[in-house]
Write the structure tokens for this entry.
Amino acid sequence: MTKFADKRTEWKEQINEQLIPLDEGEWKQLDRFLEGKQIVLLGENSHWVSEYYTNKIKFVQYLHEKHGFRVLVLESGLVEASTTDFFGNTNLEDAMKNGLLGIYHNEEMTTLFTNEGLEDLTIAGMDVQPISNDCSQRILSCVEKEIGGHVANKLKDVEATFFELEPQIRNEVKLAKDTKKQLKQLAEGYEEVISLMENEMQAGVYSKRLQLIYRGIVNRKQWLLVNLKGRFRSGSLRDVFMYENLEWLFDYYKGEKIIVWSHNYHIRKNRSLLLKGLGIKTVGHLLAKQYAHSLLSVGFYAGSGTCLSPYKQPYDISVKNQYHLEKLLMEFNRDVLFLPVNVDAIGQKRPWSKQNWWLLEMKWLGMAPLVIKPYKFYDAIFFVKRVNPPRYWEDQD
């Protein structure tokens, strides 16, 4: 039986025939992989890597300018991200803090919204997680203006209660009975508002903004349901709701090409055996079932350097084991490369791709290898040789 180490030279030669170096801006070489694609999923094995932000923004600009992608959907609250004006905002940091999840509150991300070439890009969110109550006033003003005070007043009450309870449910590992009772009552309050809005909206024509806000109010109720399910089941339910939000956004932005920016876990086209066994559905695998031929899924990985843990602690990336695909990719001595792994795109399944490889993925306490055949989960791997932590605002003097 041939040892793994004995095959590395052959596998490296095969990969060398497929990879596309991007350190000198050779983005046009990706054109052939974008033919017929309406949805591009950009993943990341960690949210806390500076070079993922900078390279994703370059990728977004390439997709926007060269292939007509006009909507960017972030892993952030739908109603907050979709109703916040980021481009040209003189208080950009405040807008980002109140419109996007904390993972995006860094200097690298601000360059997306100060890029003149992207000013006509539409920003949206797909998550049901709330960001802050800053959005509530925009929601209430729009509802009162277009539907009336009777609905806005009811919504004002449930929104106030929602943001009183929200910090509590985030901090409780296991919800107390009284908290669960409050959440159920609040969900009923949102259901009443949703019914009132649906009755009003069926009888007339309302703005696109009100339609977004309606969806956001549905998401409020869904977030309560996520938390009522408990920590284990809530992760799967959140992905299902994010997928439903994307389906809603595809209809809302009908005919537009859409980029989705999220974690590798959410954008992989297939599930691991463990997730299948547990019955957990993810955004990527649900999308792949519906949009297989118009979807491009790209996982982001790194070979060395430092990222942050979810608790903002520095964490060194280590890929010393020979089974790490990142270790092999480091040997090409390119700062950034794009490795197509989709069999249809590259014309054949080469022996290297039949091998199970280790790829690092961020867990709650640090990185751990995920063992996969990359072609089953992605269309391509975006690899960065060395990385650093993002520059978060709260870390600045």
In short: The radius of gyration is 22 Å. The first strand starts at residue 20 and ends at 21.
